[in-house]
Amino acid sequence: MAVRRVVPNLRSAASDDNRAFYGLLGFEEVMNHGWIMTLASPSAPGAQVSFMAADLTAPVTPDLSVEVDDVDAAYAAVLDSGAEIVHPLRDEEWGVRRFFVRDPDGHVVNVLGHR
After folding, report:
1. pTM for the whole thing?
2. H-only helix segments in 24-84
3. Smallest Cα–Cα separation from 95: which of 48, 13, 10, 31?
4. What's the pLDDT tens digit per position in 16-66?
5. What's the domain range around 87?
6. I need a surface site. Which of 27, 61, 72, 110 has the fewest CB within 10 A?
């Protein structure tokens, strides 16, 4: 299994303010679903940050998103480890397959793959 990208998810209801502020640092909006907005660097597209008011389908807002090339393998590995699944593996309407897991320090990690 390979990691494709890692994106911090910052809780915020001020996406317009954050778009303007992080724009000063060279970030541009690459995704906006209303409840989550992702900004990326045009010169280094893997450099991203997301702002989320609340997750649309999960009971908690994740602290971090990790995109992997095989989300089903990641889910199986996490289940075998005994880690706490916070949000079960599912296909979301916006084109990702994902689950949430709690890391050893209590952070919620959104593990996803694009369909």
Report:
1. 0.90
2. 71-81
3. 31
4. 999 999 999 999 999 999 999 999 999 999 999 999 999 989 999 999 999
5. 3-114
6. 72
